[in-house]
Structure formats: C-alpha cells, structure tokens
C-alpha cells in the first residue's frame, strides 16, 4: 500500500469511528400518546443499566417504573406489542441496526488492512452501511406515513445523531472510493521503495551527528573540569606556601 493510501485509509477509519460515536447523541425521538422522548446512545445505555439493576434487585419491573422523563416501562411494553403485531416494523428495526454492525466491522478491518485484497470487504461493508443510512433518511417520510396508515400510536422523528452518522459514513466511503480510483491501495513502485529505503540513511547520519555533538560536549566538560582542578591545585599550593612563610 502506498503512503498516501495508508494515511487516507486511517482517516477513513477515523471518520467511521466518529460516525459510530455520533449515535451517542440524540438520534431519534419517539412519541407515544402525549409523551415525547429523545433517544440517544447514552440514554439507551443508562436505561439498560437501570432496568438491569431494577430486575436484579426486585426480580420484576413495575409498569410504572420510569425509564426516562414521561416514559415508563408500560409504554415500552405497548411499543413492543405494537411492533410485534406488524412484521414490517420488526424488519425496519433490523434494517436500522444493520448499518451500525456493518460500519463497526468495516472500521476494524480498515485499521488492519494492508492492501487491495484486505480493503475489499471494508469498502463493501462501509458502502452498504452508508447507502442504507442515506436511503433510510431519504425515505423516512414513507415510514411515517406507513405508521399512520396502520393506526400505530408510535411517531418517530430523526435527530442530529442520525444525520451525523450518515454524513461521516458517506465521507469515509468517498475517501475509500477515491483511493481505489487513484491506486492508493496498490503496491508502491520501485522509486517509492528506494526513497523509503534512503530515509533510514538520513536517520543514521543524524544519529552520527548527535553522537559527535555529545562527544564534543563531553570533551568540553572534561576540559573545563581539568582546568578547574588545575586552578584548585594552584590555589592549594599558594595557600601552603603562604602558611609556611608565616611560620
């Protein structure tokens, strides 16, 4: 892999990581009846931890247990019952989780990729994740109309986290496609290899220069120490002479 390909590959992996971290922000809002709740990655983790702690301590979860502001465990049960009655909603949830899994795998494979063969699957997975997220954002109005036609009590709206996920994942895919077109994943040419082999020689020269400078400094220190020792000896001699004369 060429040098610029390696650098931009790592930048694409960083964008994938940012797209996954953007899901920690509020990415959608759910409205059941008169209660509206914004869902974020941090909120989901906190709610899961609270529910697990409640179940471990009391062995049951009350219907009035408040997961978030104005959102209880009873509302979650009603939403799950509503979703289970419509297989299309279950499929929509599975499709929504699929890009996250694909992008996570693509990020890990991109970090360890070393050439064309190892970059094929990360590019494919990231393209699937970005394409599906873009399609979901564009066709989201159809999902809302579908829920309204089925008489569902659930209303969904997208927030900043979902748009950030789509933007960063699409940017990562664009970088990877540009590298495929420009040959960034190809093996370096002979000239580039020779240039890469010449660089250690420069580092050796710099090391030799540093060693010479250190030797010079050590020599100067030794000279200064020798001069100071000679001066001390002369002072002692003079002191002894003066002491003898006084006697």
Could you say which overall geometry the principal axes of the C-alpha atoms support?
Answer: elongated
Structural class: mainly alpha
Order of helices and strands: HEEHEEHHHHEHH
How many helices? The count is 8
Strand order of the largest sheet: 2-1-5
Radius of gyration: 34 Å
Proportion of residues in β-strands: 5-15%
**Major beta sheet, specifics?**
3 strands, antiparallel
Number of domains: 2
* Total beta strands: 5
> Helix fraction?
over 70%
* pLDDT < 50 runs, ≥5 residues: none
Whole-number mean pLDDT: 76
Spatial gap, N to C terminus: 87 Å
Description:
- The chain has 247 residues and is mainly α.
- The protein folds into two domains: 3-188, no CATH class; 191-247.
- Helix content is 76%, strand content 9%.
- It has helices at residues 3-21, 41-58, 73-85, 87-111, 116-138, 140-149, 160-182, 190-246; strands spanning 26-32, 35-40, 66-68, 71-72, 154-158.
- The chain has a three-stranded antiparallel β-sheet with strand order 2-1-5.
- Strand 3 (66-68) and strand 4 form a beta hairpin.
- Helix 1 packs antiparallel against helix 4 (87-111).
- The longest helix has 57 residues, at 190-246.
- The N and C termini lie far apart (87 Å).
- The model has no long low-confidence stretch (mean pLDDT 76).
Key words describing this protein structure:
247 residues, elongated, 2 domains, 5 strands, mainly alpha, 3-stranded antiparallel sheet
List the helices and strands and how they pair.
Elements: H1 3-21, E1 26-32, E2 35-40, H2 41-58, E3 66-68, E4 71-72, H3 73-85, H4 87-111, H5 116-138, H6 140-149, E5 154-158, H7 160-182, H8 190-246
Antiparallel strand pairs: 1-2, 1-5, 3-4
Helix pairs in contact: 1-4, 1-7, 4-5, 5-7
């Amino acid at each position: 892999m060429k040098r610029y390909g390696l650098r931009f590959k790592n930048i694409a992996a960083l964008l994938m990581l940012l797209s996954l971290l953007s899901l920690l922000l509020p990415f959608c809002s759910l409205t059941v009846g008169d209660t509206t709740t914004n869902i974020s990655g941090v909120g989901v983790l906190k709610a899961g931890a609270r529910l697990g702690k409640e179940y471990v301590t009391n062995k049951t979860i009350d219907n009035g247990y408040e997961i978030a502001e104005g959102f209880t465990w009873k509302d979650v049960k009603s939403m799950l019952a509503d979703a289970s009655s419509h297989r299309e909603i279950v499929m929509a949830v599975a499709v929504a989780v699929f890009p996250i899994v694909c992008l996570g795998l693509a990020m890990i494979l991109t970090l360890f990729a070393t050439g064309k063969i190892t970059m094929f699957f990360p590019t494919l997975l990231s393209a699937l994740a970005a394409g599906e997220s873009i399609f979901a954002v564009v066709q989201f109005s159809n999902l809302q109309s579908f829920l309204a036609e089925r008489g569902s009590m659930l209303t969904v709206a997208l927030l900043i986290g979902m748009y950030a996920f789509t933007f960063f994942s699409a940017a990562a895919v664009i970088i990877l496609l540009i590298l495929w077109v420009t040959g960034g994943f190809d093996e370096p040419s002979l000239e580039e290899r020779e240039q890469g082999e010449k660089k250690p020689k420069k580092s050796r020269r710099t090391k030799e220069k540093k060693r010479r400078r250190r030797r010079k400094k050590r020599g100067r220190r030794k000279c200064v120490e020798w001069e100071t020792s000679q001066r001390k000896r002369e002072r002692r001699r003079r002191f002894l002479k003066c002491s003898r004369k006084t006697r």
